[in-house]
């Protein structure tokens, strides 16, 4: 079980952030396109506990994860995220397995990610359908994450500790009202 230590800086410009990352000595690791499905039980009992099961394919690896927001707050700035994640070899077989366990598909989505790394800090530039691009800064402790945010020229008051769902809500979109959000389709309720 892992406690994710990550913060987000919203509404960034990709070109400007990449220049700043290169200037501080971060190395670009690559770009990925993700597709994922979130699962819950009928009636969404996990959602009521701010948790879910996620299956994700990044074009190279397929992972299955249990995720739970810690100290979930409506306005953002949670206490972090609990995560148990492991690789599976077959997206469709794992999907069928979860459905046989009684889980239902709650939501499917896509996202684009550009990853940079410097020392123990990972910088992910995330683009989701209908959202402005944001920067996710992840590290091994909060002190290092805060230092990394400051090194890029941001104020710590701008950092958000929240989920993508909360970012959608900050933008007036309830992703829970949709079953699918992709770059090529209009979200379907």
Describe the fold and architecture.
The protein has helices spanning 14-23, 45-48, 91-100, 142-151, 164-170; strands at 2-4, 6-9, 27-40, 51-57, 62-70, 80-88, 104-118, 121-127, 134-138, 159-160, 180-181. The chain has five helices and eleven strands. Helices cover 22% and strands 41% of the residues. Strands 1, 2, 3, 4, 5, 6, 7, 8, 9, 10 and 11 form an eleven-stranded mixed beta sheet that branches. It has 189 residues and is α+β, with helices and mostly antiparallel strands.
Brief characterization of the structure:
Helices cover 22% and strands 41% of the residues. It contains 5 helices and 11 strands, in the order ββαβαβββαβββαβαβ. The longest helix has 10 residues, at 14-23.
Question: Which class best fits the helix and strand makeup?
Answer: alpha+beta
Radius of gyration from the alpha-carbon trace, in angstroms:
17 Å
Oligomer: single chain
| Number of E-state strands | 11
Are there runs of 5+ residues with pLDDT below 50, and where? none
Number of helices: 5
Instruction: Please give the share of residues in helix.
Output: 10-25%
Secondary structure topology:
Elements (H helix, E strand, L loop, with lengths): L1 E3 L1 E4 L4 H10 L3 E14 L4 H4 L2 E7 L4 E9 L9 E9 L2 H10 L3 E15 L2 E7 L6 E5 L3 H10 L7 E2 L3 H7 L9 E2 L8
Parallel strand pairs: 7-11
Antiparallel strand pairs: 1-6, 2-9, 2-10, 3-4, 3-7, 4-5, 5-6, 7-8, 8-9
């Amino acid at each position: 079980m892992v406690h994710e230590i990550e913060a987000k800086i919203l509404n960034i410009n990709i070109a400007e952030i990449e220049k700043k990352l290169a200037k501080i000595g971060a190395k670009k690791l690559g770009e990925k396109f993700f597709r994922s499905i979130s699962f819950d039980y009928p009636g969404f009992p996990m959602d009521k506990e701010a948790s879910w099961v996620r299956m994700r394919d990044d074009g190279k690896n397929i992972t299955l994860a249990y995720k739970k927001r810690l100290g979930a707050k409506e306005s953002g700035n949670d206490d972090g995220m609990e995560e148990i994640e492991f690789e599976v070899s077959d997206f469709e077989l794992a999907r069928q397995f979860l459905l046989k366990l009684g889980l239902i598909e709650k939501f499917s989505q896509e996202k684009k990610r550009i990853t940079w790394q410097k020392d123990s800090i990972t910088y992910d530039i995330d683009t989701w359908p209908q959202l402005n691009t944001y920067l996710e800064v992840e590290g091994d402790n909060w002190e290092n994450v805060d230092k990394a945010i400051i090194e890029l020229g941001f104020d710590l008051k701008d950092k958000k500790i929240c989920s993508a769902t909360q970012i959608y809500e900050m933008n007036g979109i309830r992703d829970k009202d949709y079953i699918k959000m992709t770059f090529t389709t209009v979200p379907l309720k």
